[in-house]
Structure formats: C-alpha cells, structure tokens
C-alpha cells in the first residue's frame, strides 16, 4: 500500500485587501499518496491555484496562510524557515505554472535554466549538469536536444516551452509535482501530447502529481482521485470513476452537465450554471452554492454543510446529495 506523501489539514489562506479579507482557501483538507495523481477542479477564483501555491509557501503579501498544517513526509511546511523550504522547493516538490513564457527567464538559454536547477539541488558540476539537461530535454521529446540547449524561450513554441518547464520540474527527481493549469494556453492536440508526456514521466519517476485544472476532460484521463472546489472550500472528493458516474454534490453535477459529450447533437445548448460565484469577501450564510443550487432548501441558506461520507471513498459537503 502506498504511503501518504502530502497531508493538508484545515488549510486557510486569506488576502488582506483594502476592500476586506478575501478568504481564498477556507478549511481545506486533502492528501496525496506516493505515485498518485490528485486533481483539483472548479471555476476560476474558487481557490485552486491559491491552494497549490500555499503548499509550497509561495503566497506573497497581502496573502497569508492563517491556519492549518501542510505535512510533507510528516514535516509541517507551514513551520519551516526559508532555508528548509529552499531544500524542498525544486528538489522534492516541483511546480509547473500555466504560462511558461512568464515562468522561464527570457534572457537565459533553456539549457542554462535546466542545468542551473540541477546544479542547485543535485550539486553536479557544469559538465554533468549540462548532460542532465540534454537527457531531460530528450525525455520530454524536444528534437535535437543538444543543439537546442543554446536556444532562448522565445525561440520555442508554446508546447515546447511547456516541455522545457516539465524538464526543469522533473530534472531533480521530485517526489511531488504540482501542475497549475499546465495546458491552458495550448491548443487541444498539444494539450493531449503534454498531458500524455506528464503522465508517462510521472509513472517512470514514481512522482505524485497535484493537477490543478478547470477542464473535466483532463481530469478524466489523468487523475486517480478528484477534489471539487467552490468558493474556497472542497465540496466533493471521490475516485475519478466514481465522480463521473455518481457525482454527489449539486455543483459537481452542474459542472458535468455543462460538459459536451461525444454524442451531443450539433447546435445543442449546454446546461449552464445559473448565477455567479459569491464574493470571497462577503460570503453568504449557509452553503455558498445555495443561491445557484436547484436543490437548495431553507436549511442550506442558514447552515454550512461539512464534508460527509456519501459512498465508498466519496464525501460531499451537501445536506441533500445525489
């Protein structure tokens, strides 16, 4: 049985703005086992990315982690000093961001950037680090890797830049890879190639993956388990097959109903989710999804539902699931 690698408990991350306190992540708990892929899905602004950045303590002011634990191999990242964090970031926990053009440094060659990560964390000399950079560029299927070492980010296509980011992330054999919307800026064909590449490399390196996405199609083909987020909270968690077959929370059901199917007739109007997500500064009392929920009753507008078991390995924060 795989051991638990990451265990996030009751995480709360707030942003202190002039307009008020934005409760971006509120009481989030999740876990990832060794070698497992966990997906977090939800609409823009639901707290997915803030959760991932909190895990590696990359929250800048006015943001702050105000509560909870982030246990990585049993050690609490929240309590670590900067020196301890630097030993983990990049080496044991790596991250791929959604826009490689802003993540890569435009004034350095891609070979230099991969080699620099390796030298920092694996303590290799220049020649060994360069060889490792070539090896990783080969692994992510960048043609003529040794020649392309001296190319700059702007000389690569969007898909190739994302492959460079994957090469950097996996060059030090991390135990956990966090991928925040890694295919957002890519066309559908390149998306599939990048996801297949990530999945294959994660299996080869036995790397656990936290995949942040709004795309349920990506989740279906990539993740072992899924957490659904809404208004800063996890509202459902389940194995991927269970979530797609028997979604328990009305929000999950609404998300799935809004996805086109292969047999959907041309011109068919998709079922949109009515209303808009609530402000994270002034959340309504009760269930935050209640104003948009077709099942909402008086209790939903007064009490906050907590995650309760609704089936094998499945939990939903809803008084009236299914």
| Model regions low in confidence, pLDDT < 50 over at least 5 residues | none
Number of strands: 12
Overall geometry comes to globular
Tally of alpha and pi helices? 11
Q: State the strand order across the main sheet.
A: 6-7-8-3-9-10-12-11
Structural account:
The protein has 322 residues and is α/β, with parallel strands linked by helices. It is built from eleven helices and twelve strands. The protein has helices at residues 48-55, 82-88, 100-103, 110-122, 126-139, 145-148, 158-170, 188-205, 216-222, 240-245, 250-257; strands spanning 4-17, 20-33, 37-41, 63-72, 75-76, 93-96, 176-180, 208-213, 225-230, 233-239, 308-311, 314-316. The strands form two sheets. An eight-stranded mixed beta sheet has the order 6-7-8-3-9-10-12-11, sandwiched between helices. α4 (110-122) crosses α5 (126-139), α5 packs across α7 and α7 (158-170) runs parallel beside α8. It is globular. The mean pLDDT is 92.
Topology, element by element:
Blueprint: E1 4-17, E2 20-33, E3 37-41, H1 48-55, E4 63-72, E5 75-76, H2 82-88, E6 93-96, H3 100-103, H4 110-122, H5 126-139, H6 145-148, H7 158-170, E7 176-180, H8 188-205, E8 208-213, H9 216-222, E9 225-230, E10 233-239, H10 240-245, H11 250-257, E11 308-311, E12 314-316
Parallel strand pairs: 3-8, 3-9, 6-7, 7-8
Antiparallel strand pairs: 1-2, 1-4, 4-5, 9-10, 10-12, 11-12
Helix pairs in contact: 4-5, 5-7, 7-8
